Amino acid sequence: MDHRKVAERVIKDVGRDNIIAGAHCATRLRLVLKDDSKVDQKALDNDPDVKGTFKTNGQYQVIIGPGDVNDVYDEFIKITGLKELSTDDLKKVAAEGQKKNPIMDFIKLLSDIFVPIIPALVAGGLLMALNNFLTSPGLFGPKSVVQMAPNIAGMSEMIQVMSAAPFIFMPILVGMSAAKRFGANQFLGATIGMIMTTPGLLGANHFWNIFGLQVAQTNYQYQVIPVLVAVWVLSILEKFFNKR
Q1: Which candidate in 4, 15, 20, 25 is catalytic?
Q2: What is the residue-wise DSSP string for 170-217?
Q3: Residue 25 CB: number of other CB atoms within 10 A?
Q4: Is 25 assigned a catalytic role?
Q5: Are residues 160 and 181 in the same domain?
């Protein structure tokens, strides 16, 4: 294997100006690229000295093989003039590049907030399905299970209340989870959710008169966006006052 020629071909196929940084492990040349779509994948697939390629964690990895990859990397550094990096250093570079993607950052933000509360929502959904099974007519005849067995009507009503609770008071769950994600006090986040779902808020058709300003008594049960915004503002204010 001509290590310099292999390095030249890899650089050409991924794009010299497309390379941000590079490192290597025991078998692979690891690259962080500006745009993976600019890689000439067909050329790399047809290169007899390249055993394969794949992308993971913001890195484009080219499999060269044990022993050879060290020499190919040395030539790669000489040709590109890039700084030699360890695999740990390259992970940091890749992580920084991924953080610059606002769409992925936003998706991760939502994931961090909503994934922890999924079990509560799933439990509510299962209880809701059970209650529908008990109250829907036509499953075992013209009457529902509750109509055929009136003694379980109270249990059905209890299940209905329990199944609705996670969705009615979702702002409390979201407020607590969002506060943790934004670095604010989780109990204050939950409190904001409680304020937004309190029965004292009668609805948008009722108003408070505050110095002549009509403020709607909007209830935010079942809603998530208002509490997300409120907790985000809370986190900013909390960090501001904690510095004072």
Answers
A1: 25
A2: HHHHHHHHHHHHHTS-HHHHHHHHHHHH-TT--EEEEEEEETTEEEEE
A3: 14
A4: yes
A5: no
Same domain, 154 and 87: no
pLDDT-derived band at 98, boundaries 50, 70, 90: low
Q: Specify whether 52 is located in the same domain as 84.
A: yes
Q: Do 10 and 71 share a structural domain? A: yes
- Of 78, 79, 61, which Cα lies nearest the Cα of 25? 61
Q: How many domains does the chain have?
A: 3
Within a domain: residue 105? Answer: no
pLDDT in tens, 99-142: 666 787 788 899 999 999 999 999 999 999 999 999 998 888 88
32 compared with 244, residue with greater pLDDT: 32
Q: How far is CA 67 from CA 6, 57, 63, in A?
A: 14, 24, 12
Between the CA of residue 159 and those of 145, 147, 164, 171, what are the distances in Å?
Answer: 14, 16, 9, 21
Please report whether residue 109 resides in a domain.
no
Interval 13-31 mean pLDDT? 91
Is the predicted pLDDT of residue 152 greater than 70, yes or no?
yes
* Shared-domain flag, residues 147 and 192: no
List the domain range (segments joined by +) for residue 48. Answer: 3-100
